[in-house]
Amino acid sequence: MNDTGDRAFWLHPPHDSRIEPIAVGAPGAGELRVRSRYSAVSRGTETLVYAGGVPASEYERMRAPFQAGALPGPVRHGYANVGVVEAGPDEWLGREVFCLYSHQTRYVVPVDAVVALPADVPPERAVLAANMETAINALWDTAPGIGERITVIGAGVVGALVAGLAASLPGADVELVDIDDRKAPLGSALGLRFRSPAAAAGERDRVIHASGSEAGLAQALTLAGFEATVTEMSWYGAQAPRVPLGGAFHSRRLTLRASQVGGVAPGQRPRWSHHRRLGLAVSLLADARFDALIDAEAPFERLPEVMARLADPHDPTLCQRIRYD
User: What family classification does the UniProt entry report for this protein (predicted)?
Assistant: First the structure.
């Protein structure tokens, strides 16, 4: 029985989701109870889970940090929650925090599972922290340098965050490439060039692919210069995309590298914990440029219909924010 009136959002793959009551108790020693203010929906991972597109071999590796349930059955999934601490140690009371938690009105977590928001990071923008963490890892894996020519293919939230961070490198020449011209304003908002695939520059030093499409990966390989690095960020679930490794792939001596947020990039792993990386991600959201990525908001009660809309690949939403207050 739920005496608190709290509710949680559950995915029932394929293509169903529900808001259900949940009991949230008092925090124990070393724990916090957080009241959600905002969360965000991942257009990649959560819609793939919603659609039933996760292969059985990845059910465990795809678990969200505080997931309840297990695939292929119903799961409480999600990992971008911003809330305010309402119970726990005195020094935490009233503080706004980010947590890799799902869509739920209240929840209890250990103190070390949250990152307190700095004063210059508004809670409305902090929902991007999980995606920012992924972008940080991608740049660590790619290791771009000062003055390099960098192309990011795929102007979704993660691709745009990667491009925005790369544009801050001194002397870097950054292009963000996408087939959807409606995303062109992201170029000026982030301080870089937006290009259609046909207009994208070649001979790039680093190419980062985040479009989730075969065509995008194929173009990433064609844009890379001699001995350049191509970083693949897209995860295709149960799909088996074709990778064009013929042509000039070998003669140009290209490096094709995978990047995924689950493991800290090898070069940083000896010194960086997941919690330290998440703290960096939150702090980097002091940059108001990234407000351009949040282009939709809906109340928690509408999450089932929102998830159905976001699962449509033609829906143009970048970051869908969910409001609880």
Answer: Belongs to the zinc-containing alcohol dehydrogenase family.
Q: Which domain CATH number covers 56? A: 3.90.180.10
Domain at 214, CATH number:
3.40.50.720
Q: Which of 206, 237, 9 is nearest to 101 (CA)?
A: 9
Give the count of domains, the chain. Answer: 2
Does the residue 177 lie in any domain? yes
- The answer to whether residue 2 scores a pLDDT higher than 50 is no
Q: What percent of the chain has pLDDT over 90?
A: 91
Tell me, letter by letter, the H, E, C secondary structure of 68-106. EECCCCCEECCCCEEEEEEECCHHHCCCEEEECCCCECE
With tokens 């059955």, the residue in question is 73
- Whether residues 92 and 181 share a domain: the answer is no
Kindly calculate the radius of gyration of the chain based on its CA atoms and give it in whole angstroms. Answer: 20
pLDDT digits (tens, 9 = 90+) for 31-85: 999 999 999 998 888 999 999 999 999 999 889 999 999 999 999 999 999 999 9
Question: For 230-246, what is each residue's pLDDT tens digit?
Answer: 999 998 877 888 899 99
Secondary structure element (H or E) that encloses residue 33, with its range = strand 31-41
Decide if 316 contacts 180 (C-beta within 8 A): yes
pTM passes above 0.90: yes
- Domain holding 306, by residue range, is 7-120+289-323
Which structure tokens are listed for 94?
């009233």
